[in-house]
């Protein structure tokens, strides 16, 4: 029986052409025509729903993108950075890279993302506790569902704190007609193998202006100064995307819209087929604004009292049927590595983590695969 992957990469067929061209011209380094082309492609695609021109820098990962955003904002030892707790560790780790302290803020139930009111409370409390404001705020568009960016930005603006959007899971998701990643001072994207598009491994940083993009490239290429020899006056990083990987990305742009449409269609199938199923709730955001998630991963909650089984038991059953699933992210405030970090919690992310499961959602998942998954769950 066919193995059903959680989120398997899907190629357009164009990727090989860009890679072949790179080999023919010997552009097998962390710069080149594919890197420039991929950055331009992303800026043009994202800019279709932006009021101003966008500046995109292709990098080695989404983690590198968040890290360089914090570098650009001057985050350093003794600083605090507020981060959504309900997320993958890569959202928070770059804070520690900079010698700063993460401060975690819990989610609200409508989108599963950062609670704007709890964010305000956290800022006020950190100001009382430390005598200074957090240096940045990192909201996350979890599983492709947009965070409440108007409210988050309103809180951030009231205190003069810059926002770094973690849109690693949200390429193509829309909030009030604009793409996620374009609401903050900086926006981070990921092109890991299981994301909306892939460069095998890679990411990008959406920057506020051309000069910021230039400085990000400077830091991403070991901060080499403009001298005839290698002069370094600041610490830099080896974070640029390779020309080969960027070639994959350029090919992937041909199927980005298709990937978004397919994941949304898969989510709609889950919603319809699990309608009125006891104990099973497919995540659908609740908001008073216009949200269009990309549904990078379709997720469900399993109420064991009503369903008669836990999400762990269900996951084991799916695994036995050669179907991949995954628990929801374990909140950062529950992670041992962040045990001493300040956290402002309301129980939302812990409750979701206790019942949540990610279902196969990639563009390679067929309608009949969804039927098979639904049948196994309904017949548990």
Shape: globular
The helix/strand series, from N terminus to C terminus, equals: HHEHEHEHEHEEEEEHHHEEEHHEEHEH
For the record, the CATH class of the largest domain is Alpha Beta
Helix proportion range: 25-40%
Number of helices: 13
Spans with pLDDT under 50 lasting ≥5 residues?
A: none
CATH architecture of the largest domain: 3-Layer(aba) Sandwich
Characterize the main sheet: 4 strands, mixed
CATH homologous superfamily classification of the largest domain: Type I PLP-dependent aspartate aminotransferase-like (Major domain)
Question: Overview of this structure, please?
Answer:
- There is one protein chain.
- The chain is α/β, with parallel strands linked by helices.
- It has 2 domains: 15-255, Type I PLP-dependent aspartate aminotransferase-like (Major domain) (Aspartate Aminotransferase, domain 2, 3-Layer(aba) Sandwich); 257-378, Aspartate Aminotransferase, domain 1.
- It is 36% helix and 14% strand.
- It has helices spanning 15-24, 33-47, 62-72, 93-97, 116-130, 149-159, 210-220, 243-252, 256-273, 304-307, 311-320, 348-353, 367-378, and strands spanning 55-59, 80-84, 101-105, 136-138, 164-166, 174-175, 178-179, 186-190, 203-207, 280-282, 291-292, 298-302, 326-327, 343-344, 356-359.
- The strands form 4 sheets. Strands 1-9-8-5 form a 4-stranded mixed beta sheet.
- Helix 2 runs parallel beside helix 8 (243-252) and helix 9 (256-273) runs parallel beside helix 13.
- 50% of the residues are buried.
- The model has no long low-confidence stretch (mean pLDDT 97).
């Amino acid at each position: 029986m066919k193995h059903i992957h959680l989120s398997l990469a899907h190629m357009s067929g164009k990727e090989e052409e860009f890679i072949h061209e790179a080999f023919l011209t010997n552009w097998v380094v962390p710069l080149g025509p594919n890197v420039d082309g991929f950055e331009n492609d992303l800026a043009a695609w994202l800019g279709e729903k932006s009021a101003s021109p966008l500046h995109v820098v292709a990098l080695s990962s989404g983690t590198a993108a968040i890290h360089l955003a914090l570098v650009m904002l001057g985050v350093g030892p003794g600083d605090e950075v507020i981060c959504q707790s309900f997320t993958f560790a890569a959202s928070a780790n770059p804070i520690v890279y900079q010698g700063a302290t993460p401060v975690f803020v819990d989610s609200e139930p409508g989108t599963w993302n950062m609670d704007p009111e709890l964010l305000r409370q956290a800022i006020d409390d950190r100001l009382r506790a430390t005598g200074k404001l957090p240096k940045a705020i990192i909201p996350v568009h979890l599983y492709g569902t947009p965070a409440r960016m108007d409210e988050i930005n309103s809180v951030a603006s009231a205190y003069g704190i810059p926002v770094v959007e973690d849109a690693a899971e949200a390429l193509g998701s829309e909030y009030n007609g604009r793409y996620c990643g374009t609401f903050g001072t900086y926006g981070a994207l990921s092109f890991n193998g299981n994301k909306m598009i892939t460069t095998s491994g890679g990411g990008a940083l959406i920057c506020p202006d051309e000069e910021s993009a230039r400085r990000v490239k400077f830091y991403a290429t070991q901060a080499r100064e403009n001298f005839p020899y290698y002069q370094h006056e600041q610490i830099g990083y080896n974070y640029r995307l390779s020309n080969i990987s960027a070639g994959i990305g350029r090919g992937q742009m041909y199927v980005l819209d298709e990937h978004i449409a397919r994941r949304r269609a898969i989510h709609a199938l889950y919603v319809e087929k699990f309608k009125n199923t006891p104990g099973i709730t497919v995540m659908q955001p609740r908001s008073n604004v216009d949200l269009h998630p990309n549904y990078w991963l379709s997720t469900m909650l399993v109420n064991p009292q009503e369903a008669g089984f836990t999400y762990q038991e269900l996951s084991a059953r799916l695994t036995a049927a050669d179907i991949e699933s995954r628990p929801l992210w374990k909140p950062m405030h529950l992670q041992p590595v962040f045990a001493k970090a300040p956290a402002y919690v309301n129980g939302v992310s812990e409750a979701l983590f206790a019942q949540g499961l990610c279902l196969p959602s990639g563009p390679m998942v067929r309608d009949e695969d969804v039927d098979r998954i639904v049948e196994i769950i309904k017949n548990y």
